[in-house]
Amino acid sequence: MPKPSQYRSGSLIYFQGDPADKVYILQNGKVSLVYKDIETGEDIRDQVQPGEFFGVKSALGRFPREENAIAIADSTIMAFTVAEFEAVAMANTHIIVKMLKVFSNQMRRIHKQVSSIMAKEEVSTADGLYNVGEYYLKGKRYSQAKYVFSRYLTYYPSGKYALQATKNLAQAESALSQYGNDRSSPGNFGAGSSPAAEKLSAAAEAYYEAVSLLSQERYQEAYTAFKAIVHGGEDSEWTARSSYEIGRCMYLTKRYEDCLKYYSNMLTQYPRHPDLIEAMYYMGQCNEKTGKKEQAAAFYKKILSMTAGSNDGAAAKAKRALQAMGV
Fold first, then answer.
1. Residue 75: strand, helix, or coil
2. Confidence at residue 95, expressed as pLDDT on a 0 to 100 scale
């Protein structure tokens, strides 16, 4: 049988990822098991009580440790080889029953978290696509709205917005047949830009594909797709819109300095960009994230001066950001 070992407070018993060839029992003291919550990514700490085993699953399953085990008080711990633990467990059936209860609780918790994550991802993706459709319908960009609502109904025929998406699709189709695509819609970024045709261009379809990737939080794939549109340069409107989204992808992947440089160049190229205010908000956020509070505040104040007291969109976010900074 193994002999007790002494661990000082703060001692590491094993690391996450270490080979697992031992099962431990805490005789006295305090041990904390630290691992990442699969839903939030935050650290979770489970405290081992005296008399409890830990490190059992990975040792019996022959896979690397899933957590860090740390003594948070002076502790006495015994370490069993797998063979020794199996012999003890077979001779003491109450140990097996106790472990089954622990494992059952852990599995229920993991199942609940996975279900929650999957539900959030589904809602985020569907809602994002629907919101894009509404944006274009309200802006009288009927061919774009028709395309997006058609995609929504293809992917989410039983989604929570399916009924409204069907109505919106019919409205977009009716408007197209009566008026054609609205010719006063924004997007003429340079001389010679022509109004959108009823049929979506290849650049427009590529843009919506990339927006769909972005709504699914597949940021690197979206970034690559938007860059391809910009490099193609086939349609000035979608090139400009994709330029804005490239900066967003940089921000969402925490490339704050790159995002700042990128938006600075973009706004020089497109000084009348329809997403100018939103880009400036992200520039403020990037400055905040990198500790440049004064520069961040300057961007937020500029947004408020340009939006004439509006409480919508970037203006509202800029106000909240200034309040949080105590400015």
1. strand
2. 66
